[in-house]
Amino acid sequence: MPTATRDGVSLYYDTWGSGETVVFIEDVGFGAWLWGWQNDALAGPFETLVWDLRGTGQSDAPEGPYTVPQLAADLEAVLADHGVRNAHLVGCGLGGMIALEYAQRHGRAETLTLIGASPGGDESERNIDRLDDAFAPRDDRDALESSLESVLSAGFRERHPEAIERIAAWRAGDDADREAWEAQAAAFGGYEHRDPLYETTLPTLVLHGEDDAIVPFSNAELLDRELPRSELEAAPEAGHLVGVERATGVNDALIGFLEKQVESEQ
């Protein structure tokens, strides 16, 4: 299995398909299952890369707390190990913060897609208590299901009980334990985008559920207002994990955005 190593920490990743590389960056505590819907749609026309943040899945879990710059440096190690020259970064929640940080500190990012993301800082609102509500022990199937209330809308949960059961089973195998969850949550809660957002000039797609209880929709409006090459796609009545709830719409928007960027480069 492919792994990169940075400062003695082993970082697991895997790839599918061929073409330009699309990198999926996980949210706090959630394993690679989070990107199943998008990975299935994009692998083929693109090479997709999914990696486990330190503390999650098959990556090492050193003592925390972690920071977003530290996690962005981990991403650079993964991309260097895989030999990626340019990559399209897709991040959810904490993953969006990592993508923003990476774009300013490292040189391989081609585009950004920020899903349920925040730039941090005093201007943004983040509900850390609701994020903590999303944690559940991996050996407690009932808790793994009920804790999804924080990240998925009531309507989705009511309409798709079978999806909730499947997600709980995936979480049991892939999610972070309590200590690693808290280490990643510290990165999420403590992050502030240090440089002005207008200095991030990469083409950026902002995707956000209007009923996101963890990262309120005002964060998407802030990103869209301040990033000079952004476009915003809102999902009415959707929660934090909009890529799960509105997989078809998110996939269509993401593929359309990426294809447009690829065509403009040719």
Notes on the protein architecture:
The chain has an eight-stranded mixed sheet with strand order 1-2-4-3-5-6-7-8, sandwiched between helices. The model has no long low-confidence stretch (mean pLDDT 94). The protein has one domain (3-129, 178-265): Alpha/Beta hydrolase fold, catalytic domain (Rossmann fold, 3-Layer(aba) Sandwich). It has eleven helices and eight strands. The two termini are 33 Å apart. 42% of the residues lie in helices and 18% in strands. By secondary structure, the chain is of the alpha/beta class. It is globular. The chain has helices spanning 36-42, 68-82, 94-105, 128-133, 141-146, 154-159, 161-174, 178-190, 218-226, 242-245, 247-265, and strands spanning 3-6, 9-16, 21-25, 47-51, 87-92, 109-115, 204-209, 230-235.
